[in-house]
Design a protein that fits this description.
The complex is a heterodimer of chains A (285) and B (399). Helices cover 32% and strands 22% of the residues of chain A. In chain A, helix 3 packs parallel to helix 4. The longest helix of chain A is centred in the N-terminal third of the chain and has 13 residues. Chain B has 399 residues and is of the alpha+beta class. In chain B, strands 1, 8, 9, 10, 11, 12 and 13 form a seven-stranded antiparallel beta sheet that branches. A six-stranded mixed beta sheet of chain B has the order 14-16-15-17-18-19, with helices on both faces. In chain B, strands 2-7-3-4 form a four-stranded antiparallel beta sheet. In chain B, a hairpin with a 4-residue loop joins strand 8 and strand 9. In chain B, helix 9 packs antiparallel against helix 11 and helix 11 packs across helix 12. The longest helix of chain B is centred in the middle third of the chain and has 17 residues. Chain B is elongated. Classes of the chains: A alpha/beta (285), B alpha+beta (399). At the A-B interface, helix 4 and helix 5 of A face helix 10 of B.
Amino acid sequence: MSIFINESTRLIVQGITGKQGTFHTQEMLKYGTMIVGGVTPRRGGDWVHRTPVFDSVKAAMHATDANTSVIFVPPRFAADAIFEAIDAQVPLIVCITEGIPVYDMMRIYAYLQHSKSRLIGPNCPGIITPPQAKVGIIPAEIVRPGNIGIVSKSGALTYEVMQILFQANFGISTCVGIGGDPILGTSMEEVLEMFDNDPQTEKVVLLGEIGGRAEIRAAEYIRRYMTKPVISFIAGKSAPTGVRMGHAGAIIEGGESTAIAKIQALQNAGARVAEHPEHIVALLT
Amino acid sequence: MKVVYSCTHKENIVKLYEYQAKILFQKSGIIIPSGHLVTDLSQVQLLAQELDLPVMVKGQVLAGGRAKHDIITTAHTFEQVQHDVASLLNASIDGLPIPSVLIENRIESNIHYYVSVVNDRSARKPVLVASVQSGGDIEEVAKQHPQHIAKQYIDPLTGLHSYQSLQIADDLNFPKHLWRKFDELAQALYRCYLHYDATLIEINPVAYTHEQGFIALDAKMKVDDNALYRQPDILAWQDTLVMNETERLAMHAGVSYVKLHGQIGCVVNGAALAMTIMDMTRLSSDDSIAHACFLDIGGGADSERIVNALKIVFSDDTVKAVICSIFGGMTRCDEIASGIVRAYQLLNPQIKTIVRLQGTNALSGWEIIQSANLPNLQMAISLSDAVNLAIDAVKENIT
């Protein structure tokens, strides 16, 4: 087992004809992901890497019976792409795009509550379930199958940790990048719950950073419900207050959004917190 | 030496000057006092016949809170206006310049409220907030006198309903003849929030007069920089909002940059990874060594972007060593490597640079760097290697 994606994932790529869409379609195909179609308005009938392109998500869903969509369209069209996927009732939508205006995301979040879809992201690296499928941009060469689940807000830091685990001979059940924006489709605690219910996953690595209360809510979830061990790392212990550190969501605005507050909350909840990424290995063994 | 992490960087969420926010208020139907913006004394001379004394003289600065009160005066004579404008334009506050001064008619009123629309990240929706206590820090009011604050969450799909602003008026015991006027103000404020992609829009205080209704005496506004592409009015102001040459360079290079007060220049792809390296430096050194900046080149950077990023750190005199750590996902390490080589040729840096390349095309990246045979450049394998090499380099450089 695994969470979100597996060998029955049937993927469509929104923005398949763009530079990023084309490149990562190839990468995902190489990994063995079943990509059944792509969407770019007005490019219906074209082919990209032997994958048919459709004019709309609805047409792609009708023709392919897909169950997952990944979005690679540029920021100013990405909100529309998410609404289109929700309206086409795609069960799982993964949005890679960074830079969607926060107001658009508030509307999408409200709209999602009355829909049949789940959104991962935006501004995320996607999901990988080795060796079955990858949806997004996570490098595939630094991961092998195993029983550790990863949930993370970041991209490059996640890759670092994946490589560190790979070199220490650990394997992954599923790695989920939930994204670095202030408003996200799926929260950390939702992913924790799924890992807790997933028979393959034995331990969970949670990677967080300054800003917002996601890790505080995750700690609350761990304290009350989580049965499996959680090992965590929080970035930004030395970050200044009131400044956005790269990610739109990474800004210390109040007491609970600091790294120290999050580390304390996680420790109080029974999670083990690493001093730095390489330290995670010691806490897993 | 104790290193203090503070910074003078603009917030990435664009903060507007009061006069700019007031222009947008007016366009949205919020009444503002009539006034004049001046940027030098000769412009004040031209207003000699026009001012309706006494007037408010308000220095324009991007700082908030208490600092603002020190740069607002009431001038009763024209000479005093000239004097106050001259001293404000020469002053700075919290290290920030005062590039212009707003001269405004003074509004007499007994009724002053606080009102704002702000994004609530936990609720994932905007919230309309009002208070009968105005002029000070709303966070303090919330702590000391929560009964003096009322708020209503706004559903972003349906907008602000009139009954919600009336509920606030009722909760705060506004006189009943003000209820409708208050709803008009709240609706205009929400329109302004929507139309200009604000993340925060605050009037503290708003006054009420019989002649004009509600008037925004102050104006504070932050705008979502992800939405700037659809905000031509604000884009036109962007150069007034960036404070120094380095920030301008960073903005045009498309990198995320924060100046800090240490010695290690750090160029990384990925925000969390850049913060992690900062944290590891702090963990491995005593407090005397820290990072000189946070610089995230973002995903999918090409060689042009890494050249511009290295220009920023190499030209900073406080930088004594550089870490360039890239984990290629979307980013290709060969592109990064040729960018590093080009930056070296252009700038001939005299300080040590520690380079770490992992992920997509890392091997060809290593080969490019090796064959260029650059002086003062060292390759690192793990994160802790890179951090320790940089700390050693700083120590060598200082002694």
